[in-house]
Amino acid sequence: MSFRRLSESFPTFYATQVPTLDRTRVPGNRPVGSSNSPVQPSRTKQGNPGQSAGAIDHWSIVLLYSMGFGAMAVAALMFTMLIGVWMYGQFIWTFTHWDLANVRLAPFKSLAYGIVAATFVAGTGVGLWCFSGAAWKNRKPVRGK
């Protein structure tokens, strides 16, 4: 099996008969650059060399992504609670028929809200720690490679 480009294997694959809007392409002539590839247009606008493309560097984006970590932490908490309710229904209620009819949850309402809020804040803090770069600043180099 040879690893050649598709244009080398099938030279008619390149669309030479497609007209362009400015009528610069002559049908049948293929523009070529170095290494037999189509000519790439030159960049006219130069970006700021201090910024990297794709970097997460504005504080509002870092905070928004960190809040996404907090939302995922709350979703993980809710999934854990769902597993807990499933285990209660599968094992405890099945064997004991204890349906928690005499347990009142109203006194624990503020505690439940506090746990959800603390989970969100902790997840946001972990996200801020990761996205700000603090998690990666004091890494030791890996030896043995």
Fold topology:
Elements lengths: L5 H4 L49 H38 L12 H24 L13
Helix pairs in contact: 2-3
| Gap from first CA to last CA | 34 Å
Oligomer: single chain
**Proportion of residues in β-strands:** under 5%
* Beta strands, count: 0
Figure out the total of helices: 3
Give a quick account of the main beta sheet: strands, pairing sense, barrel closure.
none
**Helix coverage percent of residues?**
40-55%
Shape: elongated
* Low-confidence spans: none
Give me the Rg, rounded.
Answer: 30 Å
Report mean pLDDT, rounded to a whole number: 77
What class do helices, strands and sheet pairing give? mainly alpha
Which sequence of SSEs, written as H and E, runs from N to C?
HHH
Compact description:
The chain is mostly helical and 145 residues long.
Folded structure, characterized:
By secondary structure, this protein is mostly helical. It has a domain at 59-135. It is 46% helix and 0% strand. It has 3 helices and no strands. It has helices spanning 6-9, 59-96, 109-132. α2 (59-96) packs across α3 (109-132). The mean pLDDT is 77.
Structure characteristics:
mainly alpha; 0% strand
